[in-house]
């Protein structure tokens, strides 16, 4: 909402965008999300290994750093697993994306 100089309230509406329109606008980049997640997942996973190793080398079981390390470790594993699932998804192949673009056109 915005106020006009006259003191009136102006409501602007945002049109809803369909998934097909989003794919047409981005060139299908949203289907390559798993390619972006893999490096981030590896970094988070390695940080989780390091934080967990440091925490357990000082015998600080249940401390904040050990919990933080385990959270990073599990988050990295979840991200790697989700990117692997997206990578194996047959609907994300180039042929399926091309068919989708041809149906849009």
UniProtKB/TrEMBL annotation:
KW Membrane (keyword) present: yes
Domain of life (superkingdom): Eukaryota
A Gene Ontology term for the protein's cellular component: plasma membrane
Recorded topology in the membrane: Multi-pass membrane protein
Any Gene Ontology biological process: cellular response to BMP stimulus
Sequence intervals crossing the membrane: 37-58, 64-87
Subcellular location: Membrane
Alphabetic keyword roster: Membrane, Transmembrane, Transmembrane helix
Name of the protein: Transmembrane protein 100
Species name: Neotoma lepida (Desert woodrat)
